[in-house]
Design brief:
GO terms for molecular function: 2-oxoglutarate-dependent dioxygenase activity; metal ion binding. Helices cover 23% and strands 24% of the residues. It has 355 residues and is an alpha+beta fold.
């Protein structure tokens, strides 16, 4: 039954319930399981409406967790992906969007460090592959831009808030809002239901998919960039902060493609090479008819197996498609490749998902 709350007015009960769905409230409630609490005054937004109210929280975490069935877990293992609608609340999504607005407003990137983000191999090597700014971003919060928004000197051709393609790769470690979402009780519970014993967070990204210019993401497998021995140890969490549609660039997947291994890797280049990274092997040509679209509503979560083939198209609509995504690795019995572009550092070892 979760928590039992009391209030004289139905409207007040609704406000209390919404408050209890926030990540902060969840963590607080979990730490006070089985306790009867009286809150006098409450949040400033509630003070004028209620003098006192109370609830009793019992039966631990289960009522706050989004329900995931064994059938859904089996479907994930079969397809290599799983859609969980309404996993996060609208308030949680809005808090991430508000926080990213503050981060972008304070963004300072020297012109010589401003690079366009692309997933086309030649462009990727030319832009990120030749940039120490990218290679050393694994333990930092750094900014990458859409193609065509910078002049030859790195100056913005459009407002900077409309030019950002993604922010990566350590929001989960350095920003309190994204850290709270990444380690939220329901994410941890989902990890346990999936059988993860020692999951660690290896990276995170905020993806903007800007209206009209949000670039395509070519077909790929995450394990090509985040390689482990053995394979099958990488899992992506992709959170829709706005409705993702075919018009604004939702994800597309090839069901079952996670069972065929990988044919391409991005690795750190040898010392003295012309680029910091290079590709080994090649991505096969995929039949577009194999892909299926996965539109998802705001607050939905897509679980992504590290070897499933997926992509997204150019956003040619007038609507953005914001998403927050992070990847975890099952660390038990797993070796993280020292050839990966992303490496843990003394300042930021990969943190445990479980807190």
């Amino acid at each position: 039954m979760g928590f039992i709350f009391w209030s004289k007015e139905l409207a007040m009960r609704t406000k209390i319930f919404e408050l209890c769905k926030s990540p902060t409230a969840q963590c607080w409630l979990l730490s006070h399981a089985g306790t009867r609490i009286t809150w006098r005054g409450g949040e400033s937004a509630l003070q004028s409406q209620v003098a006192s109210w109370c609830w009793c929280w019992d039966l631990g975490a289960s009522a706050l967790m989004a329900s995931v069935t064994q059938q859904q877990i089996q479907k994930f293992h079969k397809d290599g992906f799983l859609v969980l609608e309404q996993f996060f609340s609208a308030e949680e999504c809005d808090s991430m969007r508000s926080q990213i607005q503050r981060i972008v407003a304070e963004m300072e990137v020297p012109p010589h460090c401003r690079t366009a983000f692309s997933t086309r191999e030649e462009e990727q090597l030319q832009q990120q592959g030749s940039s120490d700014y990218f290679l050393t971003s694994g333990d930092k919060i750094r900014f990458f831009f859409e193609k065509g928004v910078l002049d030859e000197k790195g100056n913005f051709l459009i407002p900077k808030e409309k030019s950002v393609s993604k922010i990566g790769h350590a929001l989960h470690a350095h920003d309190p809002v994204f850290k709270q979402i990444t380690h939220s009780p329901k994410v941890q519970e989902l990890g346990r239901k999936l059988g993860l014993e020692r999951p660690v967070v290896v990276q995170s990204m905020y993806i903007f998919k800007q209206p009209g210019i949000g670039g395509e993401v070519t077909p790929h497998q995450d394990a090509s960039f985040l390689h482990t021995e053995p394979l099958g140890r990488i899992l992506g969490f992709w959170i829709a902060l706005e409705d993702a549609t075919q018009e604004n660039g939702c994800l597309w997947f090839i069901p079952g493609s996670h069972t065929n291994g990988i044919t391409r890797r991005m690795v750190r280049a040898a010392s003295g090479a012309s680029t910091c990274v290079e590709f080994v092997g090649s991505e096969p040509a995929y039949d577009d008819k194999q892909f299926i679209p996965l539109p998802i509503r705001k607050g939905g979560l897509i679980l992504i197996h590290g070897e499933v083939v997926h992509k997204s198209e150019l956003n040619s609509s007038e609507s953005s498609r914001h998403a927050f995504t992070f990847h975890v690795m099952e660390a038990k019995g797993t070796t993280w490749s020292k050839e990966n572009w992303l490496q843990p550092t003394p300042e930021l070892p990969f943190p445990s998902l479980y807190t």
